[in-house]
Amino acid sequence: KNQVEQSPQSLIILEGKNCTLQCNYTVSPFSNLRWYKQDTGRGPVSLTIMTFSENTKSNGRYTATLDADTKQSSLHITASQLSDSASYICVALFSGGYNKLIFGAGTRLAVHP
Amino acid sequence: EPEVTQTPSHQVTQMGQEVILRCVPISNHLYFYWYRQILGQKVEFLVSFYNNEISEKSEIFDDQFSVERPDGSNFTLKIRSTKLEDSAMYFCASSEAPPSSYNEQFFGPGTRLTVL
User: Fold this and answer.
1) Which residue out of B43, B44, B53, B114 would a mutagenesis test of the A interface target, given it has the greatest number of A Cβ atoms within 10 Å?
2) What pLDDT shows up at residue A98?
3) Which of A107, A32, A84 is nearest to B97 (CA)?
4) Of A31, A41, A44, which has the smallest distance from its Cβ to B43's Cβ?
5) CA distance linking residue B94 with residue B75, whole number of Å
6) Interface check B55 vs A, CB under 8 A
7) What is the secondary structure of B25-78 as a DSSP string?
8) Strands (DSSP E) found in A4-70
């Protein structure tokens, strides 16, 4: 079954600290993997997009990694800020005959002062 | 910066009523999508639309749902006879190129639909 699983479900960190969020996917065939940030009550906003041939992609303080062999991805946030408090969603593009984004449940990050 | 807009932000309706959710995609985009997110659950794909017809649809998108691009700017999702389980946040998205490419999908702020 095509699924995206994320861990942890929620995370609390102090402002200025780093954190890493994990994603495992069983989507096949797989075209690309995306990380989105979703503020409460808002639409998802794209952070990174990686194809299966890319290992790492950075966007400011966000760095995503992808291991297509183990079907794992991570999102590392450096020097967290209060505004980083949001849900971070891992999304895989299923590309078997038709194309569809398959979303994980997200990791809810809270950054405290 | 161009963005996807959606109206209304919140819609309350009685079970069995028809609702139309409206979206204005980014102007030069050609591919349009609807997603829904039931409270506390994952975002789920509903339908994609290109060249005035449905490209893909999920098993959720049954005969109660329809999409339309009535003019050059709006993209609508209609639910003919709402059920309690249709209560969710509905997101519209658009992209320049098909989802198989490297292109981003840009999401709107969502419409919260509450069915009573």
Assistant:
1) B43
2) 74
3) A32
4) A44
5) 10
6) yes
7) --TT--EEEEEEE-TTS-EEEEEEEETTEEEEE-TT--TTEEEE--SSS-EEEE
8) 4-7, 10-14, 19-25, 30-38, 45-51, 56-59, 62-67
pLDDT score of B68: 94
In which residue ranges of chain A is pLDDT below 50?
Answer: none
For residue B104, the chain A residues in CB contact (below 8 A) are: 46, 49
pLDDT in tens, chain B (116 residues): 789 999 999 999 999 999 999 999 999 899 999 999 999 899 999 999 999 999 999 999 999 999 999 887 899 999 999 999 999 999 999 999 887 767 789 999 999 999 99
Give yes or no for a contact between A55 and A65, defined as CB atoms under 8 angstroms apart. yes
CA B53/CA B71 separation, integer angstroms = 13
